[in-house]
Write a structure and sequence with these properties.
The protein is an all-alpha fold. It has helices at about 20-30, 50-55, 60-70, 90-95, 100-110, 175-220.
């Protein structure tokens, strides 16, 4: 949008008193403002059936719709991509698919004739490291301290005393009420499993009958 800025703050009318907002709403209702016609620059997109409409359908409609989609799926137009392709180089799967001698030749070529790259531009400034040692490539922090150095003695280490191993306390035995509660839960679980298996057989039988009815009407219906 040229010349227009996105305003995320609250409007100035938010701080208006209640009577002023009521008068403004009454005036808008009696004599509304005449705005120019809306100009849409985006293209409409068919999103299909809304989720609220899909949930309001009865259950048998969804079953018939799913079976129809399996038997004769909808033919959709080709997908239109509006993104720009980007060159990411050779994929890792393609690199690992090459034989081993190609990587060997590539390494030899990099050693004999390395790729010429532009000079590196550094924006940082060098730092005076101060005192360096032969085994360290970093500046000593002690050389940057201006206060007097004080070496405190190490604290004495506590002596290790092996603790005596104690036998774990015996587990409490379940009470008769807990055993009865477990038996009741087990019986409820078995009953729910039997009911779910029965419902599964009923639904599978209904789906098979619907498929047979669709095939029969498609063949013998005229």
């Amino acid at each position: 949008m040229d010349g227009h800025a996105l305003e995320l703050l609250l409007a100035d009318s938010w701080e208006d008193p209640l009577w002023k907002r009521l008068l403004g709403q009454l005036r808008s209702r009696i004599s509304p403002e005449n705005l120019p016609p809306l100009r849409l620059t985006s293209r409409p997109i068919d999103v299909g059936m809304l989720a609220s409409d899909r949930l309001s359908l009865p259950w048998f409609r969804t079953v018939f719709t799913n079976i129809g989609d399996v038997i004769s799926p909808e033919t959709l137009p080709p997908l239109e991509l509006e993104s720009l392709p980007m060159d990411v180089g050779e994929l890792i799967a393609d690199q690992t698919a090459h034989p081993w001698w190609t990587s060997l030749l590539r390494n030899l070529a990099d050693v004999v004739a390395p790729e010429r790259q532009s000079a590196l531009q550094l924006t940082s400034r060098p730092m005076d490291p101060g005192g360096l040692s032969e085994s360290m490539s970093l500046p000593r922090w002690s050389s940057t301290i201006s206060t007097p150095k004080v070496f405190l003695p190490d604290q004495p280490k506590p002596e290790y005393v092996p603790a005596a191993l104690k036998a774990p306390p015996p587990k409490p035995k379940p009470t008769p009420a807990q055993i009865e509660f477990v038996h009741v839960l087990q019986a409820d679980l078995k009953r729910d499993l039997r009911r779910s298996a029965f419902r599964q057989r009923v639904w599978i039988s209904l789906a098979a009958l619907e498929v047979a009815a669709l095939i029969g009407t498609a063949i013998w219906w005229k």
